[in-house]
Specification:
The protein is an alpha/beta fold. It has helices at residues 33-44, 63-78, 90-99, and strands at residues 2-5, 9-15, 19-28, 50-61, 83-86.
Length: 112
């Protein structure tokens, strides 16, 4: 398990069989974006594993955090590798809906 801790934001990585799940908690904003990128960079490039971001314990995300998620989505799409966002809290889902990005993070069937 790879863990990134600070008082405001936490990302824990769990590797399963063919799946890597990143559990986020706290606030994902400009101040912690470099920490999030450090955790995600090596995972994004591994097209052999499905990549899932679990947002169950997130309390806040700003445009920087959303931008990082979109860049991951774009990179994974380009590699034809699965990327999903799950357990999005209601207040963050509302933001995704209002900005029009919810459709990109909607649950999809694994095409394999």
């Amino acid at each position: 398990m790879n863990t990134n801790n600070n008082d405001k934001f936490n990302a824990k990585t769990h590797m399963g069989e063919g799946v890597c799940t990143v559990f986020l908690s706290g606030e994902l904003d400009l101040s912690v974006a470099p920490d999030f990128r450090l955790v995600m960079e090596p995972l994004v490039s591994n097209s052999e594993m499905d990549l899932i971001v679990n947002m169950k314990d997130m309390t806040y995300i700003d445009s920087t955090g959303i931008g990082i998620l979109l860049s991951i989505l774009k990179a994974r799409h380009g590699m034809q590798a699965r990327f999903a966002v799950e357990e999005v809290p209601q207040q963050i889902q509302k933001l995704f809906d209002m900005t029009g990005i919810a459709k990109f993070f909607a649950p999809q069937e694994n095409s394999q």
